[in-house]
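Recall the central idea of this unit: under ordinary conditions, the amino acid sequence of a chain determines the structure it adopts. In this exercise we apply that idea directly, starting from the sequence alone.
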Amino acid sequence: MPAMPKPTIIAIEEHYGDPELTKQFPPGSQPGVMGPIGAKIQDLTGVRIKEMDEAGIDMQVLSLGAPATQRLDASIAADFAHKLNDRLHQTVHANPTRFAAFAALPTADPKASADELERTVTKLGFKGAMIHGLAQGRFVDEKDFWPIFERAEALDVPIYVHPAAPDATVVERYYKEYVKAFPAILNAGWGFTVETATQTVRLVLSGVCEKYPKLKLIVGHLGEGIPFLLWRIDQAMARPGNVDAASFREIFCKHFWITTSGNFSDPALLCSVQELGVDRIMFAVDWPFVANKPAVDWMQRVPLCQEDRVKILSGNAKRLLKM
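Accordingly, the structure predicted from this sequence is:
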């Protein structure tokens, strides 16, 4: 029997850094742009493409690392995001078979964010946008930010809800005793999950999905634990006496897609497939914070049929991002 052709592999949560943006923050305030990781994240075509080729990844959807432009003051955020996205477009335009892009948004100015989303999608060919954690201390489900979601629905592109560092008050109250010995408690070890899962729950409860019924949202890391907890959240959030209201499960499963970024677990993936369906799951690595090859090797051996594996590796991304 002839060997099956290699499926296309599209990784959709892959980060880069921009030196001009780094200069806007105090030294040491962005650990992800320092050391070996920092050298990789600021690379766009050298070691990045080399490691993609070594792992067999055909394309990355590039996005700024957290917190991107979300902590910039409103007086400069829109202009800065415009220039950042233009620079990213230059890289994508020069490497159209290897890269696509999510826009960075100046969330300090929601109207400007909606306009920048439209510009990058309609003029630059971007596939949507990525939002990182809190927007200057505020959750993006607040109605001031809804113009972003309204515009995303109108453009039929997704918003990727990505982690960023927990709020300082949360760190002080919940984590401070362990930060020195276990710094990852603030990021991939726990803090990122709590922050992003909380934002996701708030988005479902806020009514933004009912207001914009074709809104599309993405959450990484196999849904930040929500697929595992979905039955319990749905049961607890049921609204007695309001039988016509959509349930938490209905809203989440209709409006959210999830990715495999940085979470290469068979049980977690199979749980997600059972809860959401395989059509809602897309491949991602979380490069350069996570290496490419373990992600690809894992996908080759996950206990799924080849048809479902191809959907996760690229088919679902091609449909959602119109690639």
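The CA atoms of residues 113 and 203 lie 18 Å apart.
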